[in-house]
Design goal:
The complex is a heterotetramer of chains A (322), B (316), C (653) and D (138). Chain A is built from 14 helices and ten strands. Chain A has helices spanning 19-31, 47-53, 55-71, 82-97, 99-108, 122-130, 132-137, 160-163, 173-180, 204-220, 231-239, 241-248, 259-266, 292-321, and strands at residues 5-8, 35-37, 76-79, 118-121, 141-142, 147-151, 184-185, 225-228, 256-258, 290-291. Chain A has a four-stranded parallel beta sheet with strand order 2-1-3-4, with helices on both faces. Chain A has a four-stranded parallel beta sheet with strand order 7-6-8-9, with helices on both faces. A two-stranded antiparallel ribbon of chain A has the order 5-10. In chain A, helix 1 links the parallel strand 1 and strand 2 (35-37). By secondary structure, chain B is of the alpha/beta class. Chain B folds into two domains: 2-103 and 145-301, no CATH class; 104-144. Chain B has helices at residues 3-13, 73-85, 106-112, 141-144, 147-150, 179-186, 189-201, 208-212, 238-251, 261-265, 273-287, and strands spanning 19-25, 32-37, 67-71, 93-97, 120-124, 127-132, 135-140, 162-163. Chain B has a five-stranded mixed beta sheet with strand order 2-1-3-4-8. In chain C, 28% of the residues lie in helices and 24% in strands. In chain C, helix 11 runs parallel beside helix 12 (405-419). The longest helix of chain C is centred in the N-terminal third of the chain and has 19 residues, at 107-125. In chain C, 53% of the residues are buried. Chain D is built from five helices and four strands, in the order αβαβαβαβα. In chain D, helix 2 links the parallel strand 1 (11-16) and strand 2 (38-43). The longest helix of chain D has 19 residues, at 80-98. The mean pLDDT of chain D is 92. Classes of the chains: A alpha/beta (322), B alpha/beta (316), C alpha/beta (653), D alpha/beta (138). Chains in contact: A-C, B-C, B-D, C-D. At the C-D interface, helix 3, helix 4, helix 5, helix 17 and helix 18 of C face helix 1, helix 2, strand 2, helix 3 and helix 4 of D.
């Protein structure tokens, strides 16, 4: 069951390029009656660069924030960004298993961290703690033209022994959350294919090629929008979509939206509030909204239209049976 | 409850039993002793008062024919445990149940009156008056009763064929039963070690506790004294004494009905029942089993569950 | 009492880290020891002679050998001292190799430990009493559990050896996994052609009694005298009347029943005969899909059946068989394809398992031998085989190699070429494991003669692209990524233990490893025996293995049973419980706790109630001895005094 | 007592023949190094281990006692370890009441194939007993 209040770590990208992820997450959490409390004086979680240099230092960067959460005497910390999540989870995993490592890390900190905080991605909190019924209950609008390819990125549920969330090879949590929010979800085979991640700087063409494949597969799957849960994926797929077209000679024009923004739209929140203006490829064309009642009415009319033939078909089946 | 009603019942059941086991006056005013009634005249010698502390049910396993026995609430648990373990045939026993408000510990009274000779003892409801050469003293039964009565949960016998008076409910809180154990558990390991070794060092290996214990059915094959198997020697060393009391406690694991006989008869006033009560407390926590309460129960040390809810594997 | 102590060097295994001379020297000082020496190889011929000579020369009456584990050579040395005229229970073995020399770093501490282990053994041997085994009749009938190739071979060999065999097969027909195969490697001869005749032999052999569509409910007793309770599941068809004509199968309205025989490669009817060569060739109704059971009304098969064999009211039927030995040949299972999520197992219809593909290849299979794509029933041109799909993968809990996938994948690649000449097969592999006779040449032929392209690398993902299935993997020899657009993907799924293997092991009192495969008595020296005497293993139930190995083990298990039954009487193990009826007080706690119900109530002439042990049923666990308050019942050779002697030998203050 | 004994404490092990004794053999065959304090007594089944044996050992000189049998459900005699589990758990809870630190007595389940686990059990238990030091004045 969802607690009423969670310690919330936004992380650096959600203060900058992924502002809309932070805004939309806060908006839907408020709508779902969950309060997010940021630990004051939080610092960089270390993300990928730290642990490629020094594991102890990386764990210390993450653990510093976890001690702040411990001081708030909270035992769960949620963060939307998978990179921050992995930093916290790895620190927790290694420090709670290896006494010597823990002491070494605590040596770098002003206050020791005693492994009391469990980190959960915001998607996990929404999917497991809040739950699909609660999400569905709050839906006020439907986007009939929208067909979404849910894109998880590579570290949301990997490595399995540390992530311990959803299926490491074929996750379904975002699919279920979006369909609970009344959004049509396509079966997307590349939901975990690599988008090129941080190679956007040193090897841009490779990122364009990899992201291009993901965009192409999304379109093949019949989607007209890609839902993401990671700032870096969003950047590679949306910000660099123009570069992809240049490098691979394609002309993709598919919006890449955070799953929290989509849920926000389904809750009838204003695009402004959800930071819809901050995405590069605009999604206005496909996020036409009608209220839920109108949607039901349309559904009812369609069913009525189809009823006559169905009646005829049933009658025919009746004869052959006996 | 008058002794009169008890005598009537005894005379009523006497014809269809071999003997009736009850209490009669002892060698002095402060003592009662068991009586094996075979004829109606003997029934008149019967007494019932708070001095009737002996657990008469202990005689049942050795009885060959059908007998009747007078039992208090705590004594009746012995019968229930015998039924659980098949040590008696329930149809061969007529149980005369006596609701009891607590008995008197003879030793506590003697200590209270400075071991003076006792001239007369009379009982009024809830207290006992003792007449000695230096005058009369009255004590509330609650102050001179053995530990078991202070936390008695079963004042009325659990099984009986006749009841001498109205059944009465226990007014003692359930957790008072193991209050003494909890108090010892509060102490440190060293304190408890010193306490028990100190107490058991007083033991003179007279085996009174074993002989009085209703659940000790090994009679003269007790391994405290045999060569085959040869667990302990007769040497009066603390180790051997501790071994004997551990044998007694472990053999009573999940069987001790807390009738208090072992502590009542111990000449050295060693709290021998403490270890047994600790095991009973664990039996309750582990298997929520209390010995001698439900005839259908199975003693936990002689059965098992494939998945034990409360036994977790100990990690090093 | 004159105890002889023999400390073994065991070459350098013991002498390397234990001062054996010092141990022998200390042993001489121990009370009761008349002779102590160290010897290079005590278990060798001269070593044993050293013992028998010493017994003669020094009139020794008890022997202690300090060497390897008693689980290894206790019986060897017992036989040795028997030759010298001592009762074989006047012997104790101190384990100073596995428990001392091989695991201790400090020579001084090892020597001290070896001395104390010898002191314990000497203390115990001085309390040992002579024990004599009694003998009991053997019931020379054998139970074979499982009708696969291993079970059938074992049953036929036993029956040909003159033993009565009771075979219990869980599914409606014997034949096991081999009956489902089209061809067998490495000779590509037709599986049912070589298996069918054996199946018929089993059916027609007058010494073999077959209980098909039946399961083991309960096993009681011990070697030589087992009572097997068999549950005959209701096929809802009276097999005495059914002629196997198959009319019911044709007319049955339910066309989407799950087909266990074809592993769901295609649906079948609610009433069916698994395959044409089925033994017994009888129909069976699947109550989960039959409308008569699901909807309560249909009765089509009952109407059409010429012999009126259909009977919807049939119930479980329990029968008991008395046997003397059990051969377990319960086979293996295959990993559930849904567990391979990165390959889309269970999500994409055109990603199937090797056994399902084998059924497509098989002429009597659901597609009569035509290879099709389950999605659109078209003939695939590009087929990709993925070896090690689930095997050798710690994260899926299957770290072991499944033994025969490489071989059947090569075979299927060859057969694919025969069936579809213009097809192209690809095989993703880590290592081609083809160790058997003619095996490697066979996989070579698949590549060179039949043009199968072997790509050395793992497959990372399989996803649909239009009608094709894109197989994305690595080619580690070329160092590149590979993407193949396949029409059909065949996964060589991992071999796992048969469903219900653990429960069967618990009924047999045999142990099983973490993967559910049964544990043999000794991996190298006794592969077909178990620690429970009288229970033998054959085939893949002990671990993944191919047909030649399974058949070999079937015969091996049969040979073991035949040698067990070569004697008319079996010697009982004398280390069993014995009641001292003088000290027993008849509380019968032992009777209540005995796991084998080997203790009964006995009334002496004096009318005293006491316990009595049934010698042939007691297995010697000793629970009664630790339960008896007055020590009246004592497990011989592990009595309280003997164990106390060992405790006292170590625990002097 | 020789100074050798000073380094070593006296730990008595009761191992069931079918599983744990086999596991100790497997550890030996695998050359899994272990401290040498443990002295192993072979019993047919953990159900044969009367809690009195553990008490006897602890009172008359042992510094630690280890009992190991087959995993529940895997007992060669079907029920032996089920009885052992209840009786040894009862003893494990009684010892501290009597003043004997229950860390001196450990019971566990090790199968014949678990050589590495056996090495771990012996190493950890020996360390645990050494932490408590000798129980009897030498």
């Amino acid at each position: 069951m969802a607690e009423k209040e969670y310690a919330y770590f936004s992380g650096c990208s959600l203060e900058g390029t992924a502002k809309e992820y932070d805004e939309s997450l806060r908006a839907i959490m408020k709508a779902l009656g969950v309060n997010l409390v940021e630990p004051d004086d939080w610092s960089c979680c270390g993300s990928t660069p730290a642990h490629t240099v020094d594991h102890v230092f990386a764990a210390a960067l993450a653990a510093r924030n976890l001690t702040l959460v411990e001081k708030m005497n909270k035992d769960v910390l949620t963060t939307p960004c998978p990179s921050c999540l992995m930093a916290f989870k790895k620190a927790q995993f290694n420090m709670s298993r290896d006494e010597a490592f823990k002491d070494e890390v605590n040596g770098l900190l002003d206050e020791a961290y005693n492994c009391g905080v469990e980190s959960k991605s915001s998607l996990q909190v929404i999917y497991e703690d809040i739950g699909l019924d609660a999400i569905a209950a709050r839906v006020t609008h439907i986007m009939p033209d929208l067909k979404v390819a849910p894109y998880y990125g590579c570290i949301l549920s990997r490595p399995p022994e540390i992530a311990q969330f959803d299926d490491p090879e074929n996750p379904v949590s975002m699919d279920k959350v979006l369909s609970a929010a009344g959004i049509q979800v396509q079966d997307f085979a590349f939901k975990m294919e690599c988008c090129g991640a941080a190679f956007g700087v040193p090897k841009r063409e490779m990122v364009n090629r990899l992201s291009g494949k993901v965009l192409e597969m999304a379109i093949d799957a019949g989607a007209n929008c890609i839902a993401v849960a990671c700032p870096l994926c969003q950047q590679n797929l949306d910000l660099r979509q123009e570069q992809v077209n240049k490098t691979t000679g394609s002309n993709y024009n598919i919006p890449v939206i955070y799953f929290t923004q989509l849920i926000g739209l389904a809750y009838g929140l204003s695009p402004k509030e959800l930071g819809m203006d901050k995405v590069i490829v605009s999604a206005d064309s496909i996020t036409r909204r009608i209220t839920r009642e109108e949607y039901e009415k349309i559904k009812a009319d369609e069913a009525a239209a189809k009823k006559p033939q169905k009646a005829k078909k049933d009658a025919a089946a009746e004869e052959t049976n006996n | 409850m008058s002794t009169q009603k008890l005598k009537e019942i005894i005379k009523q059941v006497l014809p269809d039993v071999e003997t009736v086991i009850c209490w009669q006056d002892g060698f002095d005013k402060l003592n009662v002793t068991p009586i094996f009634i075979t004829s109606p005249e003997q029934a008149d010698k019967v007494v019932w008062n708070p001095l009737c502390a002996q657990n008469l049910a202990s005689y049942l396993p050795s009885q060959k024919k059908k007998v009747a026995v007078a039992v208090k609430g705590c004594d009746s648990r012995t019968i229930v445990q015998y039924m659980q373990e098949g040590l008696i045939d329930r149809d061969n026993v007529v149980i005369i149940g006596i609701p009891c408000k607590g008995v008197v510990s003879k030793k506590k009274v003697q200590k209270a009156i400075g071991n003076e000779p006792v001239e007369d003892v009379t009982f009024t409801d809830g207290s006992v008056k003792v007449k000695t050469p230096s005058g009369e003293k009255t004590f509330a039964i609650a102050d001179v009763c053995p530990g078991k009565c202070a936390s008695c949960q079963y004042p009325t016998p659990i099984v009986y064929d006749h009841l001498t008076s109205e059944a009465i409910k226990s007014d003692k809180p359930a957790e008072s039963v193991y209050a003494d154990v909890a108090e010892l558990e509060g102490k440190t390991l060293e304190e408890r070690k010193a306490y028990f070794l100190g107490q058991f060092d007083k033991c003179i290996r007279c085996y009174a506790c074993r002989n009085a214990c209703p659940m000790c059915v090994c009679q003269d094959s007790c391994i405290a004294e045999t060569r085959e198997p040869h667990w302990i020697t007769q040497k009066l060393s603390l180790d051997e004494k501790l071994m004997f009391h551990m044998i007694h406690s472990l053999h009573l694991a999940g069987r001790c009905v807390e009738c208090g006989e072992c502590e009542r008869v111990c000449p050295m006033e060693i709290p021998v029942a403490k270890l047994k009560k600790k095991i009973n407390k664990e039996m309750r926590d582990l298997f929520d089993y209390t010995p001698g309460v439900n005839p259908e129960d199975k003693p936990p040390m002689y059965t098992f569950n494939v998945d034990e809810a409360k036994i977790k594997e100990h990690k090093l | 009492m004159r105890v002889g102590v023999f400390i073994c060097h065991c070459g350098s295994n013991i002498a390397g880290t234990v001062d054996v001379a010092k141990v022998a020297e200390e042993a001489r000082k121990m009370p009761g020891v008349a002779y102590a020496t160290a010897y290079m190889y005590t278990c060798s011929e001269p070593g044993q002679k050293e013992i028998t000579d010493a017994i003669e020369r020094d009139k020794l009456d008890r022997i202690v050998v300090a060497a390897c584990s008693p689980r290894m050579h206790e019986n060897t040395f017992r036989r040795t001292i028997m030759k010298a005229g001592l009762n074989r229970y006047f012997f104790e073995q101190a384990n100073i190799r596995e428990h001392v020399s091989w695991i201790g770093l400090d020579k001084e501490l090892n020597t001290q430990k070896a001395i104390e282990e010898v002191r314990m053994a000497v203390a115990k041997v001085m309390k040992n009493k002579p024990l004599f085994s009694s003998s009991f009749k053997i019931n020379k009938r054998v139970l074979v559990i499982g009708g696969g190739v291993a079970g059938m071979q074992a049953a036929l060999d036993c029956a040909d050896g003159g033993l009565e065999v009771v075979m219990v097969e869980k599914s409606p027909s014997i034949g096991g996994m081999m009956a489902r195969l089209d061809k067998t490697f490495p000779t590509v001869d037709c599986s049912i052609c070589i298996l069918g005749p054996k199946m018929v032999d089993v059916a027609q052999h007058d010494l073999i009694k077959l209980h098909a569509y039946s399961e083991i409910a309960e096993i009681k007793g011990y070697v030589g005298n087992y009572q097997i309770k068999i549950k005959k599941k209701p096929p809802y068809v009276d097999w005495t009347k059914c002629t196997g004509c198959g009319l019911c199968m044709e007319k049955c309205p339910t066309k989407n029943a799950y087909d266990h025989f074809n592993f769901g490669a295609a649906p079948t009817r609610a009433i069916n005969i698994p395959f044409p060569q089925a033994i017994p060739k009888k129909a069976t109704i699947d109550p989960n899909h039959c409308r008569q059971f699901v909807k309560g009304k249909c009765g089509v098969c009952a109407k059409v059946c010429p012999t009126g064999a259909i009977n919807y009211e049939m119930q479980d039927e329990f029968i008991t068989e008395e046997v003397g030995a059990i051969i377990t040949a319960t086979g293996y299972g295959l990993m559930d394809i849904e567990r391979l999520t990165e390959y889309g197992g269970g999500r994409y219809p055109d990603v199937i398992t090797g056994i399902q593909y084998e059924r497509f290849l098989n002429a009597s299979g659901p597609t009569s031998g035509h290879i099709i794509r389950p999605s659109d029933h078209e003939e695939p041109k590009t087929i990709v085989f993925v070896a090690c799909a689930g095997s050798r993968d710690k994260s899926l809990g299957v770290p072991y190699c499944s033994n025969f996938c490489c071989m059947y994948i090569a075979k299927q690649a060859i057969l694919t070429k025969d069936h579809i000449p213009d097809s192209q097969s690809y095989v993703f592999y880590m290592d081609v494991r083809s160790p058997g006779k003619g095996y490697d040449e066979f996989t070579r032929r698949a590549q060179e003669e039949y043009g199968a392209k072997y790509i050395r690398g793992r497959v990372s993902r399989i996803y649909p692209k239009g009608k094709k299935m894109v197989v994305k993997g690595a080619d580690t020899l070329l160092g590149t990524q590979v993407e193949i657009e396949a029409d059909l993907v065949v996964l060589g799924t991992a071999v796992v233990s048969a469903p219900g293997a653990a429960q069967m092991a618990e009924k047999l009192h045999i142990s099983y490893d973490t993967f559910g495969f049964y544990v043999e008595s000794h991996p190298k020296l006794r592969p077909v025996e178990t620690n429970t005497s009288g229970v033998f293993l054959a085939g893949a139930c002990q671990g993944p293995k191919d047909i030649p190995a399974s058949v070999g083990q079937g015969s091996a298990a049969a040979a073991k049973v035949l040698s067990l039954f070569s004697k008319d009487m079996l010697e009982s193990d004398p280390a069993i419980a014995q009641v001292n009826q003088n000290t027993c007080v008849g509380c019968l706690k032992c009777l209540k706790t005995c796991p084998f119900q080997a203790i009964v109530e006995d009334i002496l002439r004096s009318g005293k109630k006491v316990a009595k042990v049934i010698e042939t049923v007691c297995a010697g666990c000793g629970v009664c001895t630790s339960t008896c308050p007055c020590g009246a019942i004592q497990l011989q050779h592990f009595t309280d005094n003997q164990l106390l002697a060992e405790v006292n030998a170590i625990c002097q203050k | 007592m020789s100074e050798v004994a000073a380094k070593e404490l006296r730990i008595v092990g009761f191992l069931c023949n079918w599983c744990s004794y086999g596991g100790a053999d497997t550890a030996g065959v695998g050359r899994f190094k272990q401290p040498t304090d443990l002295r192993i007594i072979r019993v047919p089944c953990s159900g044969r281990v009367d809690p009195m044996f553990v008490v006897r050992a602890l009172i008359t000189g042992a510094d630690g006692v280890l009992v190991s049998g087959c995993h529940p459900r895997d007992c060669h005699y079907t029920d032996g370890n089920f009885y052992a589990r209840r009786r040894l758990e009862m003893l494990k809870r009684l010892l501290p009441f009597l003043g004997i630190d229950d860390k001196r007595f450990h019971y566990t389940w090790v199968s014949a194939s678990e050589g590495a686990k056996w090495q771990q059990v012996v190493t950890d238990f020996t360390k645990q007993v050494h932490a408590l030091g000798p129980m009897h004045q030498k």
